[in-house]
Every structure is written in C-alpha cells, then in structure tokens.
Amino acid sequence: MSDAPVVAVRGEAYREVAPELARFTVTVSARDRDRETTLTRLAERAAAVRVLLDAAGPVVERRENGQLRVWPETRRSGERVVAYHGSVTTAVTVADFTALGELMLRLADQDQVEVAGPWWALRPDSPAYREARHAAIADALARAREYAEALGARVTALVELADTGLAAAPPMLAKAAYARAGDAPPELELDPQPQPVQAAVEARFTISEPVLG
C-alpha cells in the first residue's frame, strides 16, 4: 500500500444560505447640566427600552447590555464642566424576522434612542457549516476520481484528509426602507442578506496502477 501511486487534491464548497439571526443595537442617551439629572434620564430611558424588549417576548432571543458611558463636557479654555452626557447600548438578537422591522421602529420611536442594524448572521452550530464540509469532501473525492480516471486508474483508499478552514462572511448590514402614508404607522421593509459559507479540504488518495500509453 505504501508504494501505491498517490493523488493529492483540494476539495471546495461554496454556499449562500438564508440568515438565521439578526442583530441590532439600541443606544439611549441623555444630556443635562446637572449630573444627577443626566443619570436619572438615562436610567428612565434605558428602562423604557427594557419594557419594549420585554413586551416583544420570544421575538427577542437574546439581549446584552453593552457599554455604559458617562462623561463631562468641558469648555475648551479649561476644565469647567458645562454638561454631562450619558449613554447605554444594548445588543439585541432576533430570530423571528417577521417582527424585526416593527420592533426596531418601536425602539427608534423612543426619546433620545439610536437604533443601528440589523446585521445578519448564522448560528455557530448552523447545519450550513456541516453541509459545506461534507460538500467539500465530496468535491475532493470527485476530483481524485477524475484524475485517476484520466490515468486509467481508480481511487483505492484515503491516505490523509486535512481541513483547511471553514469561512463565513462577516455580519452584513441590512438594506432598509421606510414608508409612511398619512397617519398610518411607519413600516420598515428589511431584506435578509444571504450568508456565504465556504469550506475547503486537502486530501491524498492512493490509486491503482495507472494505464499509461
């Protein structure tokens, strides 16, 4: 077996699959000359955001409180504080895309709230990754068989298989469109972005003795 001819190939697979998650951030801000007033307003606005997220129920799969920032605003000529600023950011993960636009608009309608996103992604354990790996192995075997056939031989055994990496595109920002007609509530149309998934393997196979000439 060790003296058998060997063919080395690379197998690749590329897929574009529907996203499984959408992530966006909600940032509440406050500003006032008095520090305590700034903190109070910030807490109240953050609480209002929490109420809306709680009301969304299972639509919100996960939420994480991010960075809290409180800083003074000073005059250029010295250290005299003229106002205090504060902000709190919450990262929200949603799996139900049908309710995503409505939820984002409700949050954006709050006082001193900034909403950014969504960014589309796959779950870390998405079946798409497994399917891509299987497809890459199948591609490697198909290539090995093609080379063997061209030599008048056939693939006999696998010698080595190496995973060269599984790649997924970074989260992609959605395309959004707002529409308002008269007194009707605003609507937000979101186009989920397909997620590219790519897998590659390197494989070595033994083949039967080639028929040359």
Describe the overall structure.
The chain is of the alpha+beta class. It folds into two domains: 6-18 and 125-207, 2-Layer Sandwich (Translation Initiation Factor IF3); 21-121, Protein of unknown function (DUF541), domain 2 (Alpha-Beta Plaits). The protein contains three helices and ten strands, in the order E-E-H-E-E-H-E-H-E-E-E-E-E. The chain has a five-stranded antiparallel beta sheet. The chain has a three-stranded antiparallel beta sheet with strand order 1-10-6. A two-stranded antiparallel sheet has the order 8-9. It is elongated, with a radius of gyration of 28 Å. The two termini are 24 Å apart. The model is unreliable at 174-185 (pLDDT under 50).
Overall structural domain count: 2
Text of the CATH class of the largest domain: Alpha Beta
* CATH homologous superfamily annotation of the largest domain: Protein of unknown function (DUF541), domain 2
SSE ordering: EEHEEHEHEEEEE
